[in-house]
Amino acid sequence: MRLLFVTSEIFPLIKTGGLADVSGALPAALTAAGLDVQILLPAYRGILAQCESPQRLGALQAFHDIRCDIYRTTLPGTNIPLLLIDDLALYDRYGGPYHHPVYGDWQDNPLRFGLLSKVAAMLSVPNMLQPWQPDIVHCNDWQTGLTPYYLRQMGSQAKSIFSIHNLAFQGNFHADWRYRLTLNENDFQAEGYEFYGHLSFMKAGLYYADALSTVSPTYAKEIQTEQFGFGFQGLLQHRAQDLTGILNGIDTEVWDPAIDPYLPVNYDAFTLSRKNEVKQALQTELGLQPLVTAPLLGVVSRLTHQKGLDMLVEIAHELLASGCQLAVLGSGEAALEQQYLALMQQYPGQVAVTIGYNEPLSHRIMAGTDIFVMPSRFEPCGLNQMYGLRYGTIPVVANTGGLADSVQGGEITATGDLPPTMTGLVMAENNPSTLLVTLRQAIQLYANSGQWHQLQKQAMRQDVSWETSAKHYLDEYKKLLSS
Ligand code: ADP
Ligand code: GLC
Fold first, then answer.
1. 0.90 cut: is pTM over it?
2. Ligand 1 centroid vs 471 CA: distance in angstroms?
3. What is the per-residue pLDDT across 134-149, written as a single tens digit (0 to 9) for each?
4. Ligand 1: which of 216, 362, 407 to mutate, judged by most atoms within 8 Å of the beta carbon?
């Protein structure tokens, strides 16, 4: 089975969030399961230089005025073919994959990701560049939403699956873009790519893909409701038969406390005392008081409404009164960044806040903290809670999406035993006071080192690898090909 995996970000080349981690790991798991996988990505600035001997396959005339070069290389650290779309005007820019460094979204994002979508389809019909064509095209998030549409427009034999990583980002643009992107006028309607008068990349993906998936079973159900559906609940209910939820895995080599190169000391479930050494080094690094017995809470996150971290600010004073410490790494909404910085000023030595994006520090926070906090309002999957499990850093999570599917809560029994299935703490409701109660429970548990170590071991034993999930995807692809 040949599979083209289309994505707008991939670890370790370009990352803004969990999609990059998934794109960097799932294709390898699928390859290990026997699939013949190629990946397609835009060649953002510096990407070609990071890859081993990229070979120019040729050029594609994607739109009447856009002719782009396609390069073939491999994803660093793997043998998986990586195809890169080289278009200097559209991708070779200083800034993020979606944003100008200062002025917000790139104004020509519809064209930039329309091109990604179109090239994916062009590579899925017979072409001059390579004899290889996919049986399945696996699209990810709105940036690839037009691919299923173009596949049909071009009469491709390939089947498409569209994975929703976050329904909140929809790629809705002024309707006039449909001309530039050569979409058929007839399809600009409710039964098509139109969404409230706009051209919607997300809508196109949801409407035209042969199959839909999202990144956890619970989120697959949630997005069919008004609360989580962002206006797409009707369409998703209509397509419920074609929609499946498959929980993400994590890259267990990149995220392994036993070999993690970013840690001062490595550890595993049998050498947990060394985790305390990582904690002490982290406290020193961040200017926290060197109190190894103080429970240290960690956050690594985009600071946005989705992640619910405004609730943590709200309860911070009551929480910190108990003497626990807090280490935050994140960036996002300016107001929330300011609130966290103010908290650090108020609690020197007890709260450390780093604004920005810092891969090595994220590993050290994951390893050096005791409790990982994720009170998300919605969370399609979430990866950090799984990194927490793997690092023996007990996740405290909201009862939503992939958080609910990956963290098993529980309570100490009357006889003082820890349920053998428990791997973290799950908030009963999603509000600040419940967050406070749940964090206090975690802190109480932490004070009992016997129970805590038991909990850490149970967390570290949980299977968070891609293996099982990759098999689920394989089943979905097989179903598609036989339909
Ligand atoms: P989302 O994709 O919604 O942001 P996920 O939990 O799926 O959430 O994935 C987030 C990924 O981005 C994780 O790998 C996390 O470690 C990383 N990350 C988020 N914020 C930062 C940051 N400020 N510095 C380094 N890594 C970060
Ligand atoms: C999105 C979601 C996150 C998920 C990630 C990878 O960014 O917000 O929950 O883990 O995609 O699927």
1. yes
2. 25
3. 999 999 999 999 999 9
4. 362
